[in-house]
Please model this.
Amino acid sequence: MGMLSLLLAVAGIVTTLVHYSNHNIVVGVITAVLLVVSYILGTADMKKQEKNGGLKTQMFNPALLGHGMSSVVLIVCGIMCVIANVG
Model:
């Protein structure tokens, strides 16, 4: 689940760039769905890691990375979307 979270976050970032270049609403919705699913999967995998002996932070952890990337992109893109559509 962690690697899927990371891959969905990367796909969400790519579709974000496509959305900003052509302003297609469908691509924007797909972007939001990809990033929200990545966030949820990353959270679920980190909770599973916590139950099984603790969160792995000393080595590569795709769940942590995907969760972080998707949350930052969701916040920044949400703010940019509000700014672009107001006025």
Observations:
- The chain has a mean pLDDT of 92.
- Helices lie at 2-22, 25-51, 62-85.
